[in-house]
Sequence to fold (382 residues):
Amino acid sequence: MNAQFKKGVLELIVLESVRKRDMYGYELVEEVSKVIDVNEGTIYPLLKRLTNEHYFETYLRESKEGPPRKYYHLTASGILYRDSLEREWMELQERVCKFLEEQGGGFE
Amino acid sequence: MKKQEFLEELKGYLKVLQDEEQEDILDEYSQHIEMKKERGLSEEEAIRDFGPVQQLAGEILQAYHVKPEYEKDREKGKFLKMLHHPGRGRDEMEETGKAIPWREWKERGKTAIQRMGRKGGRLLCSLGRRILHCLRLPFLIVERAEKKREERRKVDPAQTEKTSDYAKCRERRMIFGIAGFLRCLLSGICWCCRLGWNFCVLIASVSFVCLGLFFLFLFGGLSVLWMRGYPLAGLVLGCLGAVLCFAALSILSGTFFWFCKREKKTRTMGQEVA
Fold:
């Protein structure tokens, strides 16, 4: 898949994944990998940025195996941001589909 | 690449960030690698999935709105060293197999000049500090001497008391007499005089400073016109002279201010004795 497509939609997928329940980094990477094939390394910077912009809150929780894990929690402004992203995504998708259909109709 | 190597290299790129943040990021990545190992992958494979370390670091830095080229720019700063050892530059050219493009050379030169400027600034600062210290030296000596004198006074007050005992007796008698009243009156007048004098000196020095600034302003304006080609060389020189003159006058009046206070003090003391 086009890398730019992935990059653009990655934020929305990450936000949506965390909305359902709080997750730690690795879990989130796995969740996102189910949807799109993405370099694992690039999700951490994204999480960092979204945290810096106060869309995420983090807290540490003990785990049975290994050191405590950092969990990510979606804040109120994060939810708003997710909703706006979703709206934009739907609109874009609709427009692109419509455009492609129109063009395709021309050929037929 | 081993986990430790990977973390070290990543840390090297993230030096711009605060220590806590660095730790935070490195923790996250080391945890990720550990979990991958639990899933049965080898360390090397887990790290390979991250892609090139520099690219990864660039993306992390972007999350902090830091220019990802920052570390690269710092490396370019080594150009200065390379200028002194041109062999090194040639080595690099051979290593990369192609000549370094002109734009990069320009960038390197720019960073080198910036570095030189920073160093020069630091040098000037230290020089200024030293000069200030030298200027303060005489005052420090005077201060120390005064402190010593006070200590001596504290150490043997009996001696000083003995010598001034006779004088003190006389003084006490005078204070209780009419002279005491006169002395008070005199000191009051002196105080008023001192106040007035100081006020005058203050006004004079402030006006001198204002005039100096005015002439400085005039000097600037006229020099610009002179540069444009107007025949104002004489006036510009005159203005410069006036600036220097008023600066000197203001400093002189400042010294008057202080001297006057001390003189008056000594004078009043002299009157007391008389």
